[in-house]
Amino acid sequence: MPNPRTGIGTAIPILPCRSIDEQLDFYQALGFEVTYRQSKPNLYACVRHPIAELHFFVLKQLEPANSYSMCYVSVPDVDAVYRDLCDSLRKAGRKVPTKGYPKIGKVNDLSEDRRFNLVDPAGNRLLIGQKHAVPKPAAQGGAPAAPEPGRLAQAFDTAYRLTYAKDDPAAAARVLDAVLPKSEEASAALRFQASVLRADIAAAMDEIALAKEWARKAERLSSSLRLPDEAATAQERLRELLASWDERGCATPIDD
């Protein structure tokens, strides 16, 4: 129960940005409402959305790539929030950004929650997540219920977290590349998941030819899966990758 003397508090992040106008333009396109704007004695602004209230101040020397500012936003339905924010961007006549600053990552399952990362124009990172009702195994992304022993299983789990929790695809690529080419002893399901993850990492780094190469390998491995829904999360991610290339007018990865 809440302490009757203190009640329930609310934390409001105060985040840096290079430009108040740039910040407000992005957050308004996401569906946030501007609730306050100040020009003197210093630039300052506030926005509000059903999921959070955020405040911004100007730090002119800020480099988005070097930003360490982040905030975890707990929501009851992370998939609904993701759809709402993306729909708001589209209604504002914008594409959902997937690279650079700003960008919005896909929703993914981690051991502690289901989440997506939203990075704004200043490099501030909002980790928007929904706690699992039942704790998940450490390995995610459609990993087997009983995680496999071995180097690939460990590398997959590490690379998955680096990609989707830490948003560090370059580090994730290094981890997988050290193990994945020499992983014939691992199950087809795990190699399939790792290949899809490697394709997704390459796509995030705008290495489309490499992404398609790994997608082709995943396609070949998919025929070896024991059940139609084995590694379902990875199968869905592979379909999303193929669809994204089709939307850009690119040949699908199975075209050699």
Automatic annotation (TrEMBL):
Whether Nucleus counts among this entry's keywords is no
Keywords for the protein's UniProt record, in alphabetical order: Antibiotic resistance
Concerning SUPFAM superfamilies, the annotation shows: Glyoxalase/Bleomycin resistance protein/Dihydroxybiphenyl dioxygenase (SSF54593)
The biological processes this protein is annotated with in GO are:
response to antibiotic
- Coiled-coil positions: none
Q: Which InterPro entries match?
A: Bleomycin-R (IPR000335), Glyas_Bleomycin-R_OHBP_Dase (IPR029068)
Q: Which CDD domains match?
A: BLMA_like (cd08349)
Q: Which domain of life is it from?
A: Bacteria
Name-wise, this protein is: VOC family protein
